[in-house]
User: Fold this.
Amino acid sequence: AYLDVVLEDVIKHLLPARTFESCCAQLEAMLEVVLRSHIPVEDLFNLTKFLPFLDLFQKESVKVDACKLVLRKFQEKSSGSLNNMVAINGLLYICKVLHNSVNALSLQDQIRDISQLINHFISKVDLKKDFEGQLSFYVDCRAGLSNLDAVLGYLVLSVCQLSITTLNRAKGNHTKKTAQFVRGCLAYCYITIPSIDSIFSKLDLYLVSAECALLNNSLTQCETFYKEALNVLPEVPVSLEGPDGRSYSTEAKVLDWISRYVSS
Assistant:
């Protein structure tokens, strides 16, 4: 492709003498032009030189901005689902760069923005009838994106949905194979939820997972989720800091959760 030839020429001229270090603004402008082209963002990863071109963004802040730009354009331009593994792996690499840029000094708005971009990508991946492949994708996401609560929570919900889709595909009557697969989905949720920092997110996800287990007639796992939720409940603090920095009582949220627990 013509674009591949252009990117190769850019790399060839900038890489040997590390000239790219002084051309950050020009590289960003070039990336914007590439992303504005008629080529869908996911198809850019089929080009052999697109990822090597992104590797020219060496300074962390510049690389993070470049990766955000790629995911924002993907969000703007993507319409259907994504099942091309080359594009999926390429976009997952972009997500990992953003994930790794988050640290204790990151602002909540930055974390929220990055989490939203990553979750949009995850929501677009649909491997159709390859349910094992879909679960494997979620496992890869958890391994590489484990420090973002919102992403882990979204992964748990996605895996719960996968278990329900499997149940529907089995017409409500699991075979030995689909029952085993669903147990694997529920095990994923059981392993993932404790990694989440937000205590109310944990409690809510335990309830959702328990309900999925019940629908799938996996009663032992259902009971386990309920027990884990009750073990976490005493850890809820009397008050939590709100977005405005003020301290708020957790009593109302606890009572609401208990009401949902009792009625589930």
